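Quick one:
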Amino acid sequence: MLNIDEPRHYRIALLHLGFRPFFLLAGLAAGALMAAWAVIYLLGTTLPQGGQLPPAWWHGHEMIFGYALAVIAGFLLTAVRNWTGVQTLHGWPLLMLALLWLLARVMPFLAHPAALPVMAMADLAFGLGLAAALLAPIARVRQWKQLFIWGLVVLLVGANALFYAGLFVRDETMFLVQRALLGGLYLVIGLILLMGRRVIPFFIEKGVGEGPPPRNHAWLDLTVSLLLLAFILLEVFDQLPGLLAMLALTLAVLHGVRLGGWHHPGIWRRPLLWILFLAYAWIIIGFALRGIAFFVPLGAFLPLHAFAAGGIGLMTLGMMARVALGHTGRNVFEPPRVLGWVFALAVAAAVLRVVPPLFTTDFYKVWIGASQGLWIAAFSLFFIVYAPMLIRPRVDGRYG
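Output:
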């Protein structure tokens, strides 16, 4: 057990640990940002900053550098505390970091000419603040093995900076913006795969409590890491599409082997396990579709949404649900019964976003609108159930 000094002078439970404000904001933003995107997409409206920030790019940016990065912030600020034994950001500094994130999310909805520069400054200040807050405890105990994860966060901040640079240089082709969004998406996927390798087998072993433990192989871990690095570089720099397709298909197969080694029939009785398993499966589907797209015209957005709506959406939702239960002193083996419905809605949203458009473009907007509605319902229900847990103190009286 780690001996962590527990500060007692912050009475507001929401500011005790990073997962609290960032999971709360992420849950709220996931539904609200998608609702705004649904209005824009289905009704043909635009943002007040639409001239400088086209709605499609805003949507991609907010899902990656807004929603997903908020979940990552909440998770890592909590996890680094456990890894290092050092209290991470809390109290008013944590509030300031969360407010920077929130300010960046609000700015695109304001018509003021300074809104976009303010958004960029707040967003990048949030990213730099997060990187500094994660590095401090790691450096304090010299736990250098965690620097790789920290480095992925720094690269995400760099990709976000590249996104804003692409907006302000007024490149009509939006080349920098596209590269930044692709880089951000795959960095999040890489972080999910890295953390998933650490925690999913552990959760399955503890959650099922019977049969042999999930299997892992060192050769497989190294191989998929190297291939993923090569895949990301080729994808972001738009090089060698044939080799990229082969890498994607190979990654799909190898991650399928890994996931198969983790499977246990008992996971399907526990929503907090099957949601993580399905999220990982969606990442595999994303790699498969990305590879197949070289041979069959699928449309560029279907593999991306398999990764985003399926892999990132389900994994972040499942991790928030589990981490929030455990770190508020609740029993992760007895989650709220409604959680199965929350996850089912999110899975249905991913299915409708990807599967019907694979076979027909008829009623395309209907499928997209239905997917958006299911996503909004899933995260709204998550927010309603989890907001009281995140705002109130731990049920066991501990600080956290």
